[in-house]
Amino acid sequence: MIPELERFFAAEPITEVGCLSRDQWKITYPALLERNVPDAVSAAFFLIPYYSGERAERNISLYAVPRDYHLYVKSLGERLLPVLRAAYPGHRFVLFTDHSPFDEREAAARAGLGMLGENGLLIHKKYGSYVFIAEVVSDMPLGEDTGTEIARCPGCGACRRACPGKEECLSAITQKKGVLSESETEAIRKNGSAWGCDLCQSVCPFSKGAAETPIAFFREERIWRLSTDLIDGMDPDSFASRAYSWRKRETVLRNLSILEEKKNGN
Between the chain's N and C termini, which has fewer beta carbons within 10 Å? Predict the structure, then answer.
């Protein structure tokens, strides 16, 4: 890996990095790649662990307990990309996460960063499935190709058995806008989730005992439990810094209303 990436990741600290050359990529959004790095030849995929412990009172997904991880990735890019562009003038460097030209889970697995689970998530040997995936893409080689065969979990079925949504993911239900069906409402009420769902992760034998993140961002400004008063009392900037803000307050407040109806015995 080029020294600038090595030094930067070591300081973050980001320890799980793998490089893939273009012939190893499965490109899912070619227009996005063409628009940003048309002559791309190399990508450095890396994991961002976010697990920072557990609380009994938690009623949201663990990934949403700290501030929105997109804020961390944005800050990371603002610090990293100028370093790379200054060191290698004339070359392109773009940072992607989520909205990516690749199936990031498959790419990370192919880069040797973990295995694909039955729950559709990447599972790392140390951090379990509590990781975000991001990548730097460039038109110059970023490091030695670590491509390998894609590893898959043994398939014990624990995640499938634990899934409360069965036909529809509970996390997706909590993120729907508008009025929910009775079955969707009951799924939220029964499982006590104001946002997201971690059951397929928490029952996975490879995610139990996951190490806590060494990245300070995910250990700060944590909110473990949402309430109507808390959401109503957030100023616009505070609310915008949370992962659930993209679905607006109304969606989160609807979910909380369902949970509060249960609490009041209605």
Answer: C
Average pLDDT over residues 112-136: 97
Q: How many CB atoms lie within 10 A of CB 166?
A: 10
Taking the C-alpha atoms of residue 124 and residue 206, their distance in angstroms, rounded to an integer, is 8
| 122 pLDDT above the threshold of 60 | yes
Sheet containing 122-123, strands listed edge to edge, beginning at the edge strand earlier in sequence: 122-123, 115-116, 151-152
DSSP secondary structure, 180-217, as one string: PPHHHHHHHHHHT-SB---HHHHT-TTTTTPPPP--GG
DSSP letters along 103-119, please? -HHHHHHHTTS-EE-TT
Catalytic residue (one of 23, 39, 98, 237): 98
CA distance 25 to 73: 22
DSSP codes, 215-261 = -GGGGSS------HHHHHH--HHHHHTSGGGGGHHHHHHHHHHHHHH
Enter the pTM of the model.
0.94
* Collapsed DSSP state (helix, strand, coil) of residue 179: coil
In terms of phi and psi (left: phi > 0; alpha: psi -120 to 50; beta: otherwise), the region of 112 is left
Please provide residue 42's backbone torsions phi and psi, each rounded to the nearest 5 degrees: -150, 150
* Rama region for 166: left / alpha / beta (φ>0; ψ in -120 to 50; rest): left
CA distances from 131 to 62, 210, 263 (A): 11, 10, 33
Per the CB < 8 A criterion, the answer to whether 49 and 219 are in contact is no
Answer for the pair 29, 170: CB distance below 8 angstroms, yes or no. Answer: no
**Vertex 219: Cα angle to 213 and 223 (nearest 5):** 130
CA 188 to CA 165: how far, in whole Å? 9
